[in-house]
Design goal:
By secondary structure, the protein is of the alpha/beta class. Helix content is about 40%, strand content about 20%. Bound molecules: GDP-alpha-D-glucose.
Length: about 475
């Protein structure tokens, strides 16, 4: 049964996400300890978990096979979900990252469809739902995250009519024309509609979702409220769709930028690069959605054209390893590394790079030092739910210096209007935007950065989480169903 067991603890707020917010570390004596992974979602949840008596997180602990027993970390109860090697290959690398991810990012690469992947997606989603349903307190709240778990809202709803269910999609939701390609598309829509509140990054994502429901399921829609017919004699349920642009822990990032050690590190970084006049930075997971190839093409042409002098301008590209077992990512890595090699071979002065390419990750402090050392940050995503790098750069510049070049195709472009906005598909436009950013006078940088900082500092990830949960509390509960079934 999935109803709460009176003898075991239940939680007022249960977060369900693919990954638990912890990583395991092996100690010298062979024992393992869990270290909180410092993502934005974790920070946001820490702030809302403090407002409830009891919070929990359901997710995968990161290693295939037998999961660890439930445990406590940072005042939360963590419930690990089992994923076997085959689930990792079919549910995670397969359906999530080789079917949904490319399809939801405007088919930048071709999505692959395999029925065995779908079966694994269904099975894995069921395990997350089965873990979450019994640990949620009567009348409690469940918050499900992201594209890997789109079937979970309905699966929990079927077990628990008494709980409030919210879902937030961190990536874009595609136009109905593209979404229609997805085999099992209606099951995905119905799965999502098990929630009371569905949150998306941009207004266009919310509108795309509502349009898909209207066209493919034919449900009645009024404004952003969808009427979902009940099964059998069950009454109609109203599901609300709303836009909640995610953000970062702005104050924490800004505080790091005031740390004297980190400021010193930023100066040192520029020195290590040979004290160039200008430093241009890109920070991305190595993902084809991020437009790294377009950025390098523009950069290479600017060097070829002689419009950038590699003796006084250096580009740093941090490309954090990601999804390395998925074919499209292996291919992207090869292409990016070939291009960087060519650019450096042709243009790098002796003893220093034209493009400093970093295929590894940095700690938070080094990331902030990089942002502080950068005169220009290039965010050239071809499609991106939000893009937190754009917001982190802005939060890292209390000195009001630096220029953000930002793709229109990143969700952040809806809010960060004072950035230099570009269409990264237009290489000529991208080249002009880079030159404009490099030449921007200090007063103009300050004016733009002031406006950007106003936006980012006022709207942080804590507000985002509070807004979502507050809205979820206001959504209608199913009449007459206060007890778990
Ligand atoms: C998804 C959506 C949406 C990167 N390299 C290092 C490092 N990072 C950090 C960045 C940033 C985060 O990873 C990446 O966030 P993004 O938003 O840029 O992109 P995705 O990973 O694709 O995230 C996206 C997000 O979900 C949230 O909803 O904005 O659109 O695709 O925080 O700084 N951090 C450290 N070392 C690195 O080397 N410490």
């Amino acid at each position: 049964t999935s109803a709460p067991d009176p003898s075991s603890p239940t939680h007022e707020l249960v977060v369900v996400a693919n990954r638990l917010p912890v990583d395991s570390h092996t100690l010298p004596d062979g024992a393992t300890e869990w270290v909180t992974s410092p993502g934005g979602l974790v920070t946001a949840m820490e702030s809302v978990m403090r407002t409830v008596d009891s919070g929990a997180w359901v997710g995968w602990a990161g290693a295939p096979g037998e999961p660890p027993a439930p445990f406590e970390a940072d005042g939360m109860s963590l419930y690990p979900v089992r994923l076997d090697q085959q689930d990792v290959e079919r549910y995670y690398e397969g359906f999530s990252n080789a079917t949904l991810w490319p399809l939801y990012h405007d088919v930048i690469v071709d999505p692959e469809f395999h029925r065995t992947w779908w079966d694994a997606y269904l099975g894995a989603n069921r395990r997350f739902a089965e873990a979450a349903a019994p640990v949620t307190a009567p009348g409690g709240t469940v918050w499900v995250h992201d594209y890997q778990l789109q079937l979970v809202p309905l699966m929990i709803r079927e077990k628990r009519t008494d709980v409030r269910i919210g879902f937030f999609n961190h990536i874009p939701f595609p136009s109905v024309e593209l979404f229609s390609q997805l085999p099992k598309r209606n099951s995905i829509l119905r799965g999502l509609l098990g929630a009371d509140l569905l949150g998306f990054q941009r207004e266009s994502d919310s509108l795309n979702f509502v349009a898909a429901v209207r066209k493919l399921l034919g449900y009645h829609v009024e404004g952003m409220t969808i009427s979902v017919p009940g099964l059998g004699a069950a009454p109609v349920r109203e599901v609300e769709v709303r836009t909640f642009p995610i953000s970062i822990d702005s104050a924490a990032v800004s505080a790091l930028a005031e740390d004297p050690q980190i400021r010193e590190r930023a100066v040192q970084l520029r020195h290590d690069l040979g004290d160039p006049e200008k430093v241009v930075l890109g920070v991305d997971r190595l993902d084809y959605t991020k437009g790294i190839r377009h950025r390098l093409k523009a950069w290479g042409e600017l060097l070829d054209d002689g419009l950038i002098d590699p003796h006084d301008t250096v580009m740093i590209q941090v490309a954090t390893p990601s999804r390395e077992r998925v074919d499209a990512y292996k291919q992207l890595r090869d292409e990016v590394e070939l291009t960087v090699g060519r650019i450096n071979g042709e243009h790098a002065p002796l003893g220093r790079p034209a493009v400093s390419y970093q295929h590894h990750s940095f700690d938070r402090r080094d990331m902030t030092a990089l942002y502080m050392a950068a005169d220009v940050v290039l965010v050239t995503a071809l499609r991106d739910g939000m893009n937190l790098v754009a917001k982190e750069y802005v939060a890292s510049r209390p000195d009001l210096r630096g220029v953000l070049v930002l793709s229109e195709f990143a969700g952040a472009a809806d809010e960060l209007r004072a950035a230099v906005l570009v269409n990264p598909h237009d290489i000529d436009e991208l080249k002009s935007a880079i030159l404009r950013a490099l030449a921007m006078p200090a007063e103009e940088q300050e004016e733009a950065m002031r406006s950007l900082r106003h936006q980012v500092m006022e709207n942080d990830v804590q507000n985002w989480a509070h807004d979502f949960l507050e809205r979820l509390e206001q959504t209608g509960r199913l009449e007459g169903s206060s007890a778990p079934v």
